[in-house]
């Protein structure tokens, strides 16, 4: 486009976005309205499960298996929460850089504002603000929220938003468990003392959207990601059937959900964490708000015993989520000569 960008942002030729991208055959759209009228049953073999709930569980299972992504509407999260957090985020990101950097995150405490994050050793065209649901401190990791002075309503908007989205995440977790023919709440205990956190993403217009990505291609390391995006769009998902990138079309007041690495391991590869990225454009800025639903740091992740057998042996060695999480966070702050920790490093030969 003629204008120069810092070479740190430029993607290798094979990873640059194409000028046009398909939105055909996009991720499944799932209506959660049956949950407004029915409780999620505790046992998948319960003969009293309503047909519309059974159909919903089946849709969730198919989406997790075929795409690793789906979009939900009628999700029960109040529209007012979405509007308030969008307004607060827009006001925060409009502040002067020196004001935002008053709450800058660092190696010691990886929460707060940041604008030099890398994905696969290429700088992302974005700025972010991270905040966690449950603050904690260990010998190796400090997780303490840094709330800005301005806008004054931002803390309350973020805390109330994340409370609503966490409730949705638990419902989705239970539906996914049911789709694996497991008791609904079998995974819930892993999330007591969770390391779940949320992020405000802001993507400025980019003079070279053909060379740069808002977030480079990656998979999410946690259990589930529940994403709200504005009307601009830019999330691209790698379609499993052919490896092509597909743009996720924004749907007003919807959430985009994807399976993370932990569910891939728990399910012993029945469900797969799928690669995705964020494209930018030269005209509009974009706001998105992912909620990363993660278990407690003490959780050891391995294929669930209920899903392995002599015919389907465990495909992963056990690993500690807290160590994995810290390793991934540390890699945000410095370029590495090797790829950061991935679940395939724990794959059994």
Automatic annotation (TrEMBL):
InterPro entries: DIOX_N, IPNS-like_FE2OG_OXY, IPNS-like_sf, Oxoglu/Fe-dep_dioxygenase_dom, Plant_2OG-oxidoreductases
A GO term for molecular function: dioxygenase activity
Keywords: Dioxygenase, Iron, Metal-binding, Oxidoreductase
Presence of the UniProt keyword Transferase in the record: no
UniProt domain Fe2OG dioxygenase: residue ranges: 193-295
Pfam family, one: DIOX_N
Tree of life domain: Eukaryota
PANTHER family on file: OXOGLUTARATE/IRON-DEPENDENT DIOXYGENASE
Family, as annotated: Belongs to the iron/ascorbate-dependent oxidoreductase family.
UniProt name for this protein: Probable 2-oxoglutarate-dependent dioxygenase At5g05600
């Amino acid at each position: 486009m003629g204008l120069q960008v810092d070479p740190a942002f430029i993607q290798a030729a094979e990873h640059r976005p194409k000028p046009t991208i398909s939105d055909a055959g996009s991720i499944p759209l799932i209506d959660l309205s049956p949950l407004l009228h029915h409780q999620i049953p505790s046992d998948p073999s319960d003969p009293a499960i309503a047909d519309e709930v059974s159909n919903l569980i089946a849709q969730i299972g198919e989406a997790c298996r075929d795409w690793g992504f789906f979009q939900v509407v009628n999700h029960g999260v109040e529209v007012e929460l979405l509007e308030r957090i969008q307004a607060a985020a827009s006001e925060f990101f409009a502040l002067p850089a020196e004001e935002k950097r008053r709450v800058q995150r660092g190696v010691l405490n990886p929460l707060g504002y940041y604008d030099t994050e890398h994905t696969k050793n290429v700088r992302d065209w974005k700025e972010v603000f991270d905040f966690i649901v449950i603050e904690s401190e260990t010998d190796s990791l400090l997780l303490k929220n840094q709330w800005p002075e301005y806008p004054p309503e931002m803390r309350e908007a973020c805390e109330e938003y994340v409370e609503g989205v966490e409730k949705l995440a638990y419902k989705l977790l239970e539906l996914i468990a049911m789709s694996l023919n497991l008791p609904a709440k079998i995974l819930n205990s892993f999330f007591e003392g969770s390391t779940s956190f949320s992020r405000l993403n802001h993507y400025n217009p980019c003079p070279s959207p053909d060379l740069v990505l808002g977030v480079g291609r990656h998979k999410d390391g946690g259990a589930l990601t529940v994403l709200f995006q504005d009307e601009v769009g830019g999330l691209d998902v790698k379609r499993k059937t052919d490896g092509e990138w597909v743009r996720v079309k924004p749907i007003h007041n919807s959430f985009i959900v994807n399976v993370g690495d932990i569910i891939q391991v728990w399910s012993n590869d029945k469900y797969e964490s799928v690669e995705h990225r964020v494209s930018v454009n030269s005209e509009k800025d974009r706001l998105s708000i992912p909620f990363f639903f993660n278990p407690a740091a003490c959780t050891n992740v391995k294929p669930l015993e209920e899903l392995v057998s002599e015919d389907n042996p465990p495909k992963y060695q056990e690993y500690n989520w807290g160590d994995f999480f810290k390793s991934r966070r540390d890699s945000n702050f410095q370029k590495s000569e090797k790829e950061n920790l991935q679940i395939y490093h724990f794959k059994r030969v």
